[in-house]
Write a structure and sequence with these properties.
There is one protein chain. The chain is α+β, with helices and mostly antiparallel strands. It has one domain (9-90). Helix content is 29%, strand content 15%. It has three helices and two strands. The protein has helices at 9-18, 39-42, 79-90, and strands at residues 61-67, 71-77. It has a two-stranded antiparallel sheet with strand order 1-2. β1 (61-67) and β2 (71-77) form a beta hairpin. The chain is globular and about 30 Å long. The structure holds zinc ion. Zinc ion (ZN) binds at residues 52, 54-55, 57, 77-78, 80-81. Residues 18-53 are annotated as: Disordered. Residues 36-48 have a biased composition (Basic residues).
Length: 91
């Protein structure tokens, strides 16, 4: 489970590298992720479980990204895309 909040910068680049249009992401509240009630977005038995922002598989992790223009958005990831994101961040 990933909880992270940071400025646009590198995360904006990561979103672009996945080919995600920020306008497709759900608007997110301006508060720390742990206070947002994010768990239904990623819980396996949640009826409102989010889909991976990149590929549409069920999400296992989520975070809030600050997208220049649209503003704060949820960035949901399935396991595979989460791992791919970590690999991108390390290079
Ligand atoms: Zn995915």
């Amino acid at each position: 489970m990933i909880e992270q909040r940071a400025g646009a910068g590198a995360q904006g680049l990561e979103i672009n590298s996945f080919g995600i249009g920020p306008a497709r992401l759900d608007p997110a509240p301006a508060e720390p992720v742990r206070k947002t009630g994010y768990r239904p977005r990623i819980h396996p038995h949640s009826p409102t479980r989010a889909r991976c922002s990149s590929c549409g598989e069920p999400a296992v992790a989520t975070r809030i990204v600050d997208v220049p223009g649209p503003g704060l958005r949820w960035h949901d990831s399935c396991h595979d895309c989460m791992v791919a994101g970590f690999k991108l961040e390390q290079t």
